[in-house]
Structures are given as C-alpha cells and as structure tokens.
Design goal:
mainly alpha; about 65% helix
Length: about 150
C-alpha cells in the first residue's frame, strides 16, 4: 500500500484541528500560486538589480580609466612607457565627445578640466541608467522555502 503526499499529510495532521479563535481572527496564508508568482517576481527583480550593478561597475571603470589618465598626464608620467600610453589612449577614446569643451591655455589644466567633466558626466549618466534599470525590476517575496504543488 503506497500513500500519496496528500494522504501522508492527513496522517500527520492532529485529530483536533478546531481552534479556540474565531474564524475571522485567524490569518489565512496566501495561496501557493500567489506565493510562487511573488517569488518569480523576486527572481526577475534580482536579475534587473544584477544588470544595474553591472552598469554601475562599467561606469565606475570608465571613470577610473579617465581619472588615472588625468593623474598620469598631470604628474608628468613618461608618455613613452607602454602602460602610460595605453591608459592615455583609452582615456582619449572615452572622452572623445568632450574634447575642447573648455579652452584653457595651460595644456595640463585643459586636459584635466575637459577630461574631468567627461568623468563626472559618465558617473552621473551611468548612475542614472543603473537607477532606472534597478527600478524596472519587479518587487516580490524572497524565497524562503520551496513551493510544492499539490
């Protein structure tokens, strides 16, 4: 004789299930379908939060490259060095749209100001886009236990 899952649950249930509280005072748990839907929404929301974190990370790395390129140029690092040259080339590529926004006579100050503006814009725009992506994520219930269909 094999017992189904439903029969096992009935066998474990206490004989006296009557409660001393009135039916209106008892809280009813949400249905399994609703809990499963909420958990699905949580999963989708967590994916969107992960994407938002990746966008923030990329924006932070772009800003880091620009700031390091500024610092290397201002302190007078050897431009013939391959590492310095590569960082400066990457920074120049990233700040292309911001070339000559401000015209300052001192070349180092001009580079620092224009590239600094680019870094600030990248930081603000990246944070804004990440915020929008994070808000698109649906809210739900974090799964604590598995939902079992009957």
């Amino acid at each position: 004789m094999t017992l189904t899952v439903r029969d096992r649950r009935r066998a474990r249930a206490p004989e006296n299930t009557a409660s001393e509280e009135p039916a209106s005072a008892r809280q009813t748990a949400p249905g399994r379908t609703r809990v499963a839907a909420a958990r699905g929404a949580w999963a989708a929301g967590s994916v969107m939060l992960t994407i938002a974190r990746l966008v923030r990370l990329v924006a932070a790395l772009v800003v880091l490259v620009i700031v390091v390129a500024i610092v290397l140029r201002v302190v007078g690092a050897n431009p013939a060095n391959s590492i310095v040259s590569d960082i400066h080339d990457a920074g120049r590529t990233l700040v292309g749209p911001f070339k000559s926004v401000f015209t300052i006579k001192n070349a180092k100050t001009d580079l620092a100001v224009n590239w600094g503006v680019a870094a600030i814009v990248y930081l603000i725009v990246g944070g804004f886009i990440a915020s929008l992506i994070a808000r698109m994520g649906a809210r739900g219930v974090r799964p604590r236990r598995r939902v079992v269909a009957e």
